[in-house]
Amino acid sequence: MNDMNLPGAGGRFIRGILDDNPIFRQMLGMCPTLAVTAGVDTALAMSGAVLFVLVGSNLAVSLLRKQLVPHLRILIYTLLIAVFVTIADILLKAHLPDLSRALGPYVPLIIVNCIIIGRAEVVAARQGLWPSFTDAVGQSLGFALALLVLASVREILGAGKWLGIQVLPSAFPTWGIMLLPPGAFISLGILVSIVVWFDLRQAARARQARHAAVGAEPASQEVP
Amino acid sequence: MSNFVKESWLMILVSVLSGLAVAGVYRAEKPRIDRNAMEYLNRAVLAVVPGGTTVEPVDLGDLGKVYRVRDASGRFVGWGVPAQGPGFQGMIRLVIGLDPTAKTITGITVVEQSETPGLGSNITRDEWRSQFAGKAAVGEPLEVVKGAPSKPYHIHAITAATISSKAVVSIANKELARIRERLAKEAGL
């Protein structure tokens, strides 16, 4: 299973943050993204829990990758993920009870988060411990970045606060809807659109630069 | 059979180790989790009985558990009564504070709710909850009104969250009707 074309440790780390961002690019893990981003504090706690679970499951799967039987591998991933999620949930309950209460069922629900099982299949089952580790950290940072941006937008507009600190003047009419599910969908939609728009613009520029370099006219059939 | 073992030994091994890992962490953290839950409830009880510093549970048998609150000098200053019932979306759990004779409500706090954020969830806000302090726990049951309260037992509804407001009041009324006499008797002892 050792493919020479797979990205190395550094590449895995960098890709997770922007190029393969789990939220903005892979569109995975939407459930916690929408559910826990009404406040920056819950978004951070969720990101921490995902970091713990992803590092744990990636390392464990990578360690066992030579022993995996193809038709039983998903069972093993699920079991390992469930263990780390349960431990994360217990630790949160014991050490951060208020945040654990605020996150409610969404920590146990990390078990069904596709980011985690996706990384197990794509990276940890094929690559060694080090790239699996950097990949887990990179993906978690990408997830945290997306959650943080979304939670900041929602908390500032919906409550006038950031991490519980008043940032907008209290005269600002807060948009209560931003704290509700519609606010989550609307903000996520707008943020994803911004990322896609940015990408398209960059791709167009790169194409122009390439054409300019070879002195050729831009091909007319290309989509703008 | 040998094929079964050859294919699934890893699964069996991982299952056993997983079980041990989860059990170990749970065992290590259980006391802390229990303490957190107790502290959370104590904080809620102390928040609704002014002047209280210590909380001791009192088991009333089939009426459930209540909490007797004392101040720093050990004087009995009131009761914390847990109550729960359905809200607009899920269960609402309250702690109702009562004076030692269980005749006056000293406060009310919401320990758990899943009402609509920004609307029903306003039942947790001080401005709304503070209406309960000083209301009589005997006589007319509390009643939710939409306009300005005109009777001493009136509770002003939260705008756009009448159902949640009514749910809290009805949970409190039911619990008071159920347990008040027993508390008054208990206090006399």
Q: Could you give a quick summary of the protein structure above?
A:
The complex is a heterodimer of chains A (224) and B (189). Chain A has helices at residues 9-17, 30-35, 40-64, 73-95, 97-103, 114-124, 129-159, 181-214, and strands spanning 161-162, 165-166.
Mean pLDDT of chain B: 91
- List segments of chain A where confidence is low: pLDDT < 50 over at least 5 consecutive residues: none
Q: Tell me the helix content of chain B.
A: 40-55%
The oligomerization state is heterodimer
Q: Could you characterize the architecture of this molecule?
A:
Chain A is 65% helix and 2% strand. By secondary structure, chain A is mainly alpha-helical. In chain A, a hairpin with a 2-residue loop joins β1 (161-162) and β2. Chain A contains eight helices and two strands. In chain A, strands 1-2 form a two-stranded antiparallel ribbon. In chain A, α1 (9-17) packs parallel to α7, α3 packs across α5 (97-103) and α3 (40-64) packs antiparallel against α7. Chain A has one domain (9-197). With 189 residues, chain B is an alpha+beta fold. Chain B has one domain. Chain B is 41% helix and 24% strand. Chain B contains three helices and seven strands, in the order αβββββαββα. Chain B has helices at residues 2-48, 126-129, 162-188; strands at 54-59, 65-70, 76-86, 91-98, 105-112, 143-145, 154-156. In chain B, strands 1-2-3-4-5 form a five-stranded antiparallel beta sheet. In chain B, strands 6-7 form a two-stranded parallel ribbon. The longest helix of chain B has 47 residues, at 2-48. Chain B is elongated and about 80 Å long. The chains are: A mainly alpha (224), B alpha+beta (189).
